[in-house]
């Protein structure tokens, strides 16, 4: 097919891959340093190698490419995905692993007889003593490397606590296996911080650890330009710079953006991409990558999600006012009525450590001091967060942090409006004590104080409630301030009363 035919055909396949790991070596770019790290440690005899990285960073693609780029003369590789094995028994996991070994290494099934699930349940050592022994006989001098994807899924607690799950047995079994078997190696891919996975510490205590991060600029440029060469899609240098500014070399988001640009070029029959093309395709790219973006964010705990949205919002505010530096996310959350807890403070640092946020040192032009500013690492993600998870809405996720407080709130609602004011607010105060960011409990306390004409306490509660949700709580805050001001006038506290009325005018200048 000629270049002209390719350009005119509406059916040409988009060469950019979205939604699946890349198994084709010719479509894979970069990661040479990662492969060298893995091969060096395999040849040094490291029984376990750990590869960490956030969701959608390309860990599964790296895993699939290891057999193409690492130690083919001395090692054979078997890929095994654990994402759906968190509730499986040890015997079932071992049986499925055995099936994967037989299929991927194309072994003679009769010669490498695999014990049944029942046999493995009775005697798990059959996997190594019987099955693996026969596997090694067929491998000759080569060693076996297990590529375990989503390994941290097994750290999820099994709700059926009466049954021993793979989390309690698989790690111990693997640990004992590699201590005894000199021909078995494991490369484990996980998506969470190692510090967060206590059950891994024994197995990975001394394991070499490689973070799978962003692509180098050179590799990112190759990922942009190389896949589309057959279609003669070209990029202006400014267009490539714009793509890099939006994606920071993140492979998934680079693929998403280029996928959208290719589709646009094919539709418009305009095969040279400019900076303007990149600018106007952002919303389409976000739509194409919605599933991956959601998966990317959903792997974070609630406090980290809230901080993520807070930093995105802080950057938005700074872009509107160029003279303003990006506000610290904790400071911004306080302005939204959030009580800063230890989990929120730690969440900010975890997001930096895992690469979701970057830190920028800014020198104050007035004073010699340097301050730290935070930013969402991938600009495309920041824009998506602003669209889909605005901070004003996202802070309400904090109500779900404490299940007991959440249940107590429901119980309080069922017996609401019983007794005097102090009796009515007590259960909601207990909810706030357990979770200071249960905003609906705060709203209920404020309402009860207002309806009971305890205006001073109502003002205190509604001032915070107004920060959380100005639209919902403005009228009630004004009513509380007016009621409190009138009460102060009646007892002769004129100056304090005027302060309440001045607050009303700041909220409603025409009142």
CATH architecture of the largest domain: 3-Layer(aba) Sandwich
**Dominant shape:** globular
Q: What profile does the largest beta sheet have?
A: 5 strands, parallel
Number of domains: 4
What's the level 1 CATH class of the largest domain? Alpha Beta
Q: Strand order across the biggest sheet?
A: 2-3-4-1-5
Mean pLDDT equals 88
Strand content: 5-15%
Question: Could you please describe the fold and organization of this structure?
Answer:
It is a single chain. The protein is an alpha/beta fold. It folds into 4 domains: 3-19 and 215-294, Helicase, Ruva Protein, domain 3, CATH 1.10.8; 31-211, Rossmann fold, CATH 3.40.50.300; 300-399, Arc Repressor Mutant, subunit A (Orthogonal Bundle), CATH 1.10.10; 402-507, Serine Threonine Protein Phosphatase 5, Tetratricopeptide repeat (Alpha Horseshoe), CATH 1.25.40.10. The protein is 56% helix and 9% strand. The chain is built from 24 helices and 9 strands. The chain has helices at residues 3-8, 32-43, 59-69, 90-104, 117-122, 126-139, 166-180, 201-204, 217-225, 237-247, 251-268, 275-288, 290-298, 302-320, 329-335, 342-353, 379-388, 391-394, 403-414, 421-434, 439-451, 455-468, 470-490, 494-507, and strands at residues 48-52, 75-81, 143-149, 184-190, 209-211, 234-235, 272-273, 357-363, 370-376. It has a 5-stranded parallel β-sheet with strand order 2-3-4-1-5. A two-stranded parallel ribbon has the order 6-7. Helix 10 (237-247) packs across helix 11 and helix 14 (302-320) packs across helix 17 (379-388). The longest helix has 21 residues, at 470-490. Residues 1-6 and 157-164 have low confidence and may be disordered.
């Amino acid at each position: 097919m000629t270049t002209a035919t390719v350009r005119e055909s509406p059916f040409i396949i988009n060469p950019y891959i979205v939604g699946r790991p890349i198994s084709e070596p010719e479509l894979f770019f970069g990661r040479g340093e990662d492969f060298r790290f893995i091969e060096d440690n395999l040849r040094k005899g490291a029984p376990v190698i750990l590869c960490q990285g956030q969701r959608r960073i390309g860990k599964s693609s790296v895993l699939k490419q290891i057999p193409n780029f690492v130690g083919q003369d001395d090692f054979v590789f078997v890929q095994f995905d654990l994402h759906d094995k968190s509730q499986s028994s040890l015997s079932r996991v071992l049986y499925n692993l055995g099936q994967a070994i037989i299929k991927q290494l194309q072994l003679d099934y009769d010669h490498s007889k695999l014990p049944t699930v029942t046999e493995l349940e009775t005697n798990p050592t059959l996997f190594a003593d019987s099955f693996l022994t026969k596997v090694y006989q067929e491998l000759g001098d080569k060693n076996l490397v297990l590529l375990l994807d989503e390994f941290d899924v097994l750290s999820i607690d099994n709700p059926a606590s009466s049954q021993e799950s793979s989390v309690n047995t698989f790690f111990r079994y693997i640990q004992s296996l590699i201590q005894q078997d000199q021909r078995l190696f494991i490369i484990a891919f996980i998506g969470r911080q190692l510090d967060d996975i206590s059950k891994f510490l024994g197995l990975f205590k001394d394991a070499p650890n490689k973070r799978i991060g962003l692509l180098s600029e050179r590799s990112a440029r190759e990922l942009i330009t190389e896949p589309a060469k057959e279609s003669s899609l070209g990029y202006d240098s400014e267009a490539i710079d714009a793509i890099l500014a939006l994606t920071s070399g993140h492979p998934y988001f680079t693929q998403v953006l280029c996928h959208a640009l290719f589709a646009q070029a094919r539709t418009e029959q305009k095969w040279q991409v400019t900076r303007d093309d990149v600018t106007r395709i952002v919303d389409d790219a976000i739509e194409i990558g919605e599933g991956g973006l959601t998966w990317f964010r959903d792997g974070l705990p609630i406090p980290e999600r809230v901080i993520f949205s807070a930093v995105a919002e802080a950057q938005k505010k700074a872009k509107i006012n160029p003279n303003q530096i990006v506000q610290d996310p904790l400071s911004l959350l306080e302005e939204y009525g959030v009580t800063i807890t230890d989990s929120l403070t730690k969440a900010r640092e975890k997001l930096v450590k895992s690469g979701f946020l970057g830190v920028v040192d800014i020198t104050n032009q007035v004073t010699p001091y340097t301050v730290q500013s935070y930013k969402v690492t991938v600009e495309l993600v920041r824009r998506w967060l602003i669209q889909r998870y605005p901070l004003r809405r996202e802070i309400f996720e904090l109500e779900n942090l404490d299940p007991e407080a959440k249940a107590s709130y429901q119980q309080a609602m069922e017996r609401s409006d019983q007794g005097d004011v102090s009796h009515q607010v007590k259960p909601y105060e207990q909810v706030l004590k357990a979770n200071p960011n249960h905003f609906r409990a705060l709203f209920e306390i404020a309402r009860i104080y207002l309806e009971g004409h305890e205006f001073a306490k109502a003002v205190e509660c509604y001032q915070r409630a107004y920060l959380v949700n100005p639209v919902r709580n403005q009228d009630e805050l004004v009513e509380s301030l007016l009621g409190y001001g009138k009460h102060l006038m009646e007892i002769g506290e004129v100056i304090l009363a005027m302060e309440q009325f001045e607050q009303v005018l700041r909220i409603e200048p025409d009142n």
